[in-house]
């Protein structure tokens, strides 16, 4: 995250908290994110300095007015006016992190060779919540490269209990 993107995100998050609309702001940001991901040329248009700022901000207004929170729309227009539309995705990511921090929630990215059943997911959530003291949301990913076991990325920490990693550690011990 760039310092500039971080400043924009923090300002938007503070406004969202003041308005008691963090989830609404977040939903609006995700709506815009989906549009920009599905039509990358739109972000290129918003980032093109040769197109007048007023034209770019009016395009945002016509595309999103009434569909997203007005403060989020103003935020997008501000990014365009300051030539910072390209940092939008960073801002969404940082806003999401701030939202999780404020709600004492953390996302755990869980990689397994096969899909976990509901009981396994619930057990993992309880274990991770005990470890972190936070509410945990799982983002499960099937990774065919894993032989078995589980790999969890949580708050920037990698907890690797995969068979592949365990075999690697055994090799290291044997080779010493």
Report on the structure:
The protein is built from eight helices and four strands; from the N terminus they run H-H-H-H-H-H-E-H-E-E-E-H. The chain has helices at 3-18, 22-38, 40-47, 53-64, 70-81, 88-102, 118-132, 163-175, and strands at residues 105-112, 135-142, 149-154, 157-162. Helix 4 packs antiparallel against helix 5 (70-81). The longest helix is centred in the N-terminal third of the chain and has 17 residues, at 22-38. The model has no long low-confidence stretch (mean pLDDT 88).
Essential attributes:
176 residues; alpha+beta; Peroxidase, domain 1; Glutaredoxin; 2 domains; 61% helix; elongated
CATH 2nd-level architecture of the largest domain: Orthogonal Bundle
Q: Any idea of the CATH class of the largest domain? A: Mainly Alpha
Contiguous runs where pLDDT drops below 50 for at least 5 residues? none
Shape: elongated
Order of helices and strands: HHHHHHEHEEEH
Strand order in space, largest sheet: 2-1-3-4
N-end to C-end Cα span: 40 Å
Number of discrete domains: 2
Q: CATH fold name of the largest domain, please?
A: Peroxidase, domain 1
Number of E-state strands: 4
Describe the secondary-structure layout.
Blueprint: H1 3-18, H2 22-38, H3 40-47, H4 53-64, H5 70-81, H6 88-102, E1 105-112, H7 118-132, E2 135-142, E3 149-154, E4 157-162, H8 163-175
Parallel strand pairs: 1-2
Antiparallel strand pairs: 1-3, 3-4
